[in-house]
Amino acid sequence: MAVVINSNPAASFASANLLKSNSLLQKSLSRLSSGSRISEPADDAGGTAVSMKLVAEIKRTDAAAINISNALSFLQTQAGSMKSAFAVLDRLSELAILGGDVSKAPADIANYNEEFANLVTELGKLSSDSFNSQPLFANGTGTLTVYLSQNGSQSMTIDQASLLGAYSAVSSIGAVSGSNIGILTNAVQSLATMMAANGAQASRLQFALESLHSNKVNLEAANGRIFDVDVAAETTKLARANILLQSGASMLSQANAASQIAMKLLQ
After folding, report:
1. CB neighbourhood size of 126 (10 A)
2. Which of 65, 69, 125, 233 could be a cystine partner for 212, CB 3.0 to 4.6 Å?
3. Cα(113)–Cα(133) distance, integer angstroms
């Protein structure tokens, strides 16, 4: 091999390898410090795109789960109001029967009627209950739409049927005495139907919420396989890059020293 001064191919080759080893080392350090296999889009362009979509889907799933949880709270609050309404109707029915006792004096009936009227007023108050300013019951019939999936493809409706039935105009025991007691018994049946619908809707929402939680776990696992760094594998790469960097620096030093032979020949 000729001894030259103007060029040093060995040093250039060693320098190129040193730069490559340093790049590998920096990449491993970046991955291990961030915990991400993809430190920049160029590391895995396709994986980056897929990961971005998965992250967005995870966030939408979280948002859908929050909405369903709030809908469950709405139904639970609605159920509480219906339980109170049932207790009131139960007492109204009892008062209606007691008020029809032939042994009762008009003053006694008036006392029963006082409680009756107040309980009817309480029913009116219960019918106007709300959850975060959203009415629990509609004046007529109404529904609220709850989306059960992160992409809005699945939904269900929450019933807002009126809590006040045929008894809404009833204000005295006399109006429901005798054969007219059917007004109250029909109201109880209507309320029981509403309670059953409330329970069925709450049950469905609970299963939908569990499904969303399961989907989120799977989405996070899929995203982790794309984006998260394998610490065991990456530490091995880090050790290799460290060794290559140190040996590359040593070889570059020796390659530069080799050109000093020409100086000795010139002496």
Report:
1. 19
2. 65
3. 33
